[in-house]
Amino acid sequence: MKLTTPPRVSPQQFDVAMQAMAGVVGKDWVMASDADRDAYADAYAPGPQEQWPAGAAVAPASVEEVQALVRLANEHKVPLWPVARGKNLGYGTAAPRMAGSVVLDLGRMNKILELDDKLAYCVVEPGVGFFDLYEEIQRKKLPLWMSVPGNAWGSVIGNALEHGIGYTPYGLHARNLCGVEAVLPDGDVVRTGMGAMKDNPAWHLFPMSYGPTFDLAFTQSNLGVVTKAGIWLQPAPESSLELVFDIPEAGDVGWVVDTIAPLKISGLIDQNVFIPSWLGKMVLKGQRKDFWDKPGAIPEWRVQELLKEHKLGYWQVALRLYGEEPVVKAKAEIIKAAMAKNLKAPPAENWWRSGDPIHAYETTMGIPSAVPLQMSDWIGGRGAHMGFSPVVPATGKHVQGQMELSRKIIDSFDVDFYASFTIGGRFANNVNMLMFDRDQPEQIATMKKLFNALIDETAKAGYGEYRTHLGWMDRVMDTFDFNDGALRRFNEKVKDALDPNGIIAPGKQGIWPSAYRDQAKEGRA
Amino acid sequence: MKLTTPPRVSPQQFDVAMQAMAGVVGKDWVMASDADRDAYADAYAPGPQEQWPAGAAVAPASVEEVQALVRLANEHKVPLWPVARGKNLGYGTAAPRMAGSVVLDLGRMNKILELDDKLAYCVVEPGVGFFDLYEEIQRKKLPLWMSVPGNAWGSVIGNALEHGIGYTPYGLHARNLCGVEAVLPDGDVVRTGMGAMKDNPAWHLFPMSYGPTFDLAFTQSNLGVVTKAGIWLQPAPESSLELVFDIPEAGDVGWVVDTIAPLKISGLIDQNVFIPSWLGKMVLKGQRKDFWDKPGAIPEWRVQELLKEHKLGYWQVALRLYGEEPVVKAKAEIIKAAMAKNLKAPPAENWWRSGDPIHAYETTMGIPSAVPLQMSDWIGGRGAHMGFSPVVPATGKHVQGQMELSRKIIDSFDVDFYASFTIGGRFANNVNMLMFDRDQPEQIATMKKLFNALIDETAKAGYGEYRTHLGWMDRVMDTFDFNDGALRRFNEKVKDALDPNGIIAPGKQGIWPSAYRDQAKEGRA
Q1: What's the pLDDT at B444?
Q2: Predicted model pTM
Q3: Which of A166, B266, B315, B341 has the most CB atoms in a 10 Å sphere around its CB?
Q4: Does A265 contact B237 at a Cβ distance shorter than 8 Å?
């Protein structure tokens, strides 16, 4: 990809900035060739990658180098787009929102600084991936479990900062963050919580600061570059039981949610409960063309045939309990009795006890896996996906209503419907996975129109997305319309105060510094 | 109390401002007489109330009135000190940090806007007290339990914003906040989380915003005036079991914490576990003079006699489990077995089942009570108390070390030692309650010196306070010394951007707007 420079920066000025940054990190860690720019493009871009081009990438090895780079970014007016490991697939991967931004690749900062099995937490740098942390825990044979997203290629911190979710009792990853270190846009370093006191041992244990608490203000944020953070981990339980329920009909999701959510809210179930539809299983069994080889959505009669052939319910709920065996048994009886009110078939029961082997693909036990990426093969060609991800109240009425709404819209575009709901407490995260072949321009054109329609119609129904792809960050921010966009106004005021040159991640989540507010219309999908 | 005006405001200018504010709220709701000022003084002030004098108080009835008052405060350069119900006893009550600030009394905004038993949350205005909410839940016979602080005189929102704690599974009150509405220092109104979209039903259910999340940035904060918030409530369990353990020796607290904290972190115990020392029971049995009538601390031999006479352990742990009976039973067996390793005597067991009456003073069941205020009578005269409240890791080593440290300091001032620890997860909140007679100047002088010593010595040991009294807000902020006070620097930068005239709560938690930074040395105790 050819060079695109940031607004009002000439190629010569950009080159001077890159040379200055090379003085900080060494020239091997400034990546500014056409091939480098390709490497940092969005591999799943819905459209040409050139729509979200990085000017270059630079990879620091320490907090001090991050500080120096941030100061140079101010001096040269070259904005930085921080990524942890750049694996935010479906939401933009490593590519920046604003054309010409320099990707600040934190992948080299990959130290596990603390790993404490007694108080069950770790302190990591952004470059630490789920697989890295998992291997370290295994190597040290520590009784700790992680919470991982479906596809665990990425960074532990990066995923938490982007509000990623997993399927364990620690599944709301941003809520596991405790004590953050961030480099501010002026190059200063701040530590939140008890870490604001030197060497305070409660930094990663007590989740509040003395005074205002900003940990979550650094998530989905362009207020600073998070350089380390504490993450709470799950103490390994002595036993665990999986209850697998096949739920026959699409319309059953209402009672399923009305059965499970109260048990989740009461604390009987502590896991984030994942409710995926049948396509989640099918993508692991082959490619789409093996089951339906015509364009357009798989028709309903064929869906029903496939469910019968493969003995699948429309939804499958693999619910997992954790803890001491007598407690788990007592909980399981209550769950089974509650589900039996609407479902005759008893669940499959899979016990695990301390010392038993764990399957490689057990996200509900915190084992990192990249199996869900199999999905990209489903459609064929250069397969990719996007997720449309609104949040709804965890009631059958809202979940069913949202399911029907998105299904109707997706059907009307003749696209396969593949939904999941994850009950995280009082809310459910709905992900509508949209798969497409990047080499089929008409598929991409459809996807973009469909995505717009989903955002707009879902907002009309009153729901908002909890994260989104680069190309829709502004459109989604537009849907947050209370008091004429008060939240954006507030965010931009704080942004301008902390970052007068707008050099950290301009446009992130639709929040623009005044220096680049004129760019908000560019790069929209 | 005579009029003290804010810095650089003459009595005449102040009067003009008060008249303008009366134009918003009506003249009955501007309270500016000497008697009014007394009413808003710190009833527990360690020293003369005149040290933290309000200029007046003004009580709005709506968000719109708050906006109008904030705009007038900017116009007249008269700062506001928001209080919910002004019951922050031991930390300053309703009094402002900066002399002459006008107390913004939100007590009239006392509507319960939503109360949802299915998703277990409420939406309340700041004037709603724990007793108000409790009565409304009882009146509607809803299966909801609250979490209340020991003394529940105050506001539900105010307590959560000040990082108050309770003794239920919802005991970390700030973490129950979900979706905040705040009037900003410029009079604008913002809603966080999904409330940034008009009429989004997930506002008080999903705890994150699209983009940065600022809910906790409005706690212990002067960045805005919180005018309503969602608060998560506990679904009423079908049964509950209290296990009461008497712990004989002061030095036992180490193994107690090492037994309970892992069960709390693993989720077997979901309650915040309160571990008070014996004096918490004694203050309910009479006055200090009934047990020891000499000045100075009660000597150790007399403490041992009292414990024997009253059949008290040095500590008492009243642990409570909640949920379905078979689950509670299974959990109880595990806890009893764990405690039995160090304690021969089995616990007293008190079962409660749905429909049973609940005692009026059951903080572990979320019943609001003012019984702990009894403490103020212990010392006699105009009794008052202050709490020295550091946070430590929830391990025996840290808890025991902190206990011994504060005990040594308190002993050296010849003052009674009355400590408690609350295990909130990976951390424990330590409160050292210091009781004094406001009519004994030498007691007050001792208290102030003691409090300074506690802050300084505890910070040297590496621990910080999670909240403190007005007079020590700056001193405690001084202990947060990482990177030359980076957290304060960051806070003050944000503060100045949002509040250029510094009119919301200057000095709150040691954070001063530039307009009043010259006042930071005034009002220190």
Answers
A1: 93
A2: 0.97
A3: A166
A4: no
